[in-house]
Design goal:
Protein name: ATP-binding cassette domain-containing protein
CATH class of the largest domain: Alpha Beta
Strand content: 25-35%
Number of strands: 14
Family: Belongs to the ABC transporter superfamily.
Organism: Methylocystis heyeri
Radius of gyration: 22 Å
Shape: globular
Pfam families: ABC_tran
Helix content: 25-40%
Largest sheet: 6 strands, mixed
Mean pLDDT: 91
CATH architecture of the largest domain: 3-Layer(aba) Sandwich
CATH superfamily of the largest domain: P-loop containing nucleotide triphosphate hydrolases
Number of helices: 11
Bound molecules: adenosine-5'-triphosphate
Structural class: alpha/beta
GO molecular function: ATP binding; ATP hydrolysis activity
Low-confidence stretches: none
Length: 311
């Protein structure tokens, strides 16, 4: 990188994108500091990919302004593209090339001075030296994603934009992938990553939740949970589905949702919810226990308030 690394890597205000008559990103402002892992969450079609594409200079916003890596997103898109690693949802490698050949090929596309050495360094870093001669098609889904991540980091970008990089990957491989993201961040790389998985959201330094193109909340997980001001009870026992339906129609209950064998019941008025807990709990076969609101409780509540289907 030739330009000095700014401490604020992404700073945008009022980003808006309209496709046809639909505003898919609506007046979105955000700020991401260097070295941060910033999670982007939201339902399908909420505008995450469109936002990412505006940030890295692939799409021009219809309104709004801002900078990415210190470059203007409206006028310096080429500078941004050169310094960003972007792993798209459909990122794919050549199945009939070996792992080493894939990395060398990508290194050549990026115009790196020594593609062979760059690929060798990436193989070592990714722990793939033993398998360098194996065809990419033979890798498991998790390893394919790690290889794709390695390919995106070949030109030593200052910012990584990862669009649902672990969709459809098993939990162990997702965990390994996230370990790699943390290693990269520890080396000073900034990472913006979209995901639908709550456990992944919990591994981010900060998260933003976007629905209907609008950024509804942003902050650390602790801040987001605290700001939501939800009181939550965890209900266990029989007939939880029936109880959930009754509670959803009860004033004072903002959210009632089943998580495995427990029903989470949340509301903003703590006193009212305590009354509801007493009223529904008295003599009932279910057990009501005061609990802590989880990130998922908060997101479901946000979705309901935003007028959408819960997740
Ligand atoms: N080039 C385009 N032309 C028209 N509509 C588009 C275009 N790109 C995206 N859209 C629409 O914009 C909306 C937002 O899409 P986007 O891909 O940004 O959402 P997302 O949050 O990334 O969704 P997902 O989680 O499913 O990937 C969707 O309704 C999508 O169909």
């Amino acid at each position: 990188m030739s330009a000095p690394a700014p401490d604020v890597v992404i700073e945008v205000e009022g980003l808006t994108k309209v496709f046809g008559t639909r505003k898919v990103v609506d007046n979105l402002s955000m700020r991401v500091e260097r070295g941060m892992i910033y999670g982007f969450l939201g339902p399908n079609g909420s505008g995450k990919t469109t936002t990412i594409r505006m940030l890295c200079g692939l799409l021009t916003p219809d309104a709004g302004r801002g900078s990415c890596l210190g470059y203007d997103i409206l006028t310096q898109q080429d500078e941004i593209k050169r310094r960003v690693g972007y792993m798209t949802q459909k990122f794919s490698l050549y199945a009939d090339l070996t792992i080493r050949e894939n990395l060398e090929f990508v290194a050549r596309i990026y115009g790196l001075a020594d593609p062979v050495a760059a690929a060798a360094a990436a193989l070592k870093r990714l722990g793939l030296l033993d398998r360098a001669g194996q065809l990419a098609a033979e890798l498991s889904g998790g390893w394919k994603q790690r290889l794709a991540l390695g390919a995106c980091t070949l030109p030593d970008p200052a910012l990584l934009l990862l669009d649902e990089p672990t969709a459809g990957v098993d939990p162990k491989a997702r965990r390994d992938f996230w370990d790699e993201i943390h290693h990269l961040a520890a080396r000073g790389l900034t990472v913006l990553v979209s995901t639908h998985y709550m456990d992944e959201a919990e591994r981010c330094h900060r998260i933003a939740y976007i629905a209907g193109g609008r950024l509804l909340v942003t902050g650390t997980i602790g801040e987001i949970i605290a700001d939501a001001g939800l009181t939550t009870y965890v209900v266990t026992g029989p007939q939880l589905d029936e109880l959930s339906q009754k509670l959803q129609k009860t004033p004072g209950v903002e959210m009632a949702a089943l998580f495995g064998s427990a029903l989470h019941v949340s509301g903003r008025d703590a006193a009212l919810l305590a009354n509801i807990a007493q009223q529904f709990g008295a003599g009932a076969p279910q057990r009501w226990t005061p609990g802590e609101a989880t990130l998922e409780d908060v997101f479901i509540d946000l979705m309901i308030r935003a007028g959408g289907a819960p997740l």
